[in-house]
Amino acid sequence: MLKKWHSLLCLVALILAAILGCDRAEQDNPSGQNPPVRLDKLQQLPVGQSEPDAQALRIGVGAILSPQGTAHSYQLLIDYLGRKMGKPAILVQRKTYQELNDLLARNVVDLGFICTGAYAEDVKKEAVSLLVVPQINGRTTYRAFVIVPAASPVREFADLRGKVFAFTDPLSNTGYLYPLSLLQGMGQQPETFFGRTIFTYSHDRSMAAVMEGIADGASVDSLVYAFASKSNPEISRQTKVIWESPDFGIPPVVVPRTISPARKALLKKFLLGMHRDAEGKKALAVLGVERFVEPEPRLYDSKERRPCLLQ
Questions:
Q1: Residue 64: per-residue pLDDT
Q2: For 46, what's the count of Cα atoms within 13 Å in the CB-facing half-sphere?
Q3: Which pTM was predicted?
Q4: Do residue 165 and residue 241 come from a single domain?
Q5: Domain contains 12
Q6: What stretches in the chain show pLDDT beneath 70?
Q7: Is 259 exposed, middle or buried (0-12, 13-18, 19+ CB in 10 A)?
Q8: Same structural domain for residues 150 and 234?
């Protein structure tokens, strides 16, 4: 019996030694030979340093769609840009618009597909530069649609008093800032006007919340609503639009201000030329985009947006 206990204690001692040895090894060499790139565990980098895997093209996509919808819609575009740039291309997703804004500000991603509201926030911090914008149905603008269930008696925004309302993201132009401006115009706040509010963190989830009876109403991106309804006619059958906003500048494509001029120029060249390339046209079709064009800065000017966005 003593021999058995002695053997067990020796085994425990060996295991503890191995664990402690691993801890010391990690302290001495925290990155190891092949450190994994963990975009969900990023730390602030000192100025002048670059992220690991600096040769990869990192493309950040705002949570306009759910993660599944984003991966499906953008993968061809990401693969296309990777081939054109001659680099592996990585899709970077985050739950909130603010998280992607932070990655752009720190130059962790090279290219960002972000919401108009998120861009307005980035402009305040001088974190990004406009690169290109998508053109859809010949236009570079979009609207907020306030939607309710098709059978709902609600006819206008004021009828949503006391109801459950779905917002998308705190930085979303159409999914939060615009309905907030409507409430301000009525002298109201969401906490006192609505019976309850929820954040869905994507426009397709907001539409699903209305269709499934989780929310009595939601404010969504008109382009996402139209494209999703075309793919799934049940959306337009089970919901109705009761309110439309004025036109806003379409969600833009941006780059960090600190990106190298050469990389910025190449990205712009390839995006602007996608519609003339067979593979590029296929990637655009999946997104429901005709082409990328030069942006009109006036559409994103705070003075132009003042009636509909919080200042």
A1: 66
A2: 1
A3: 0.74
A4: yes
A5: no
A6: 1-54, 64-71, 302-311
A7: buried
A8: yes
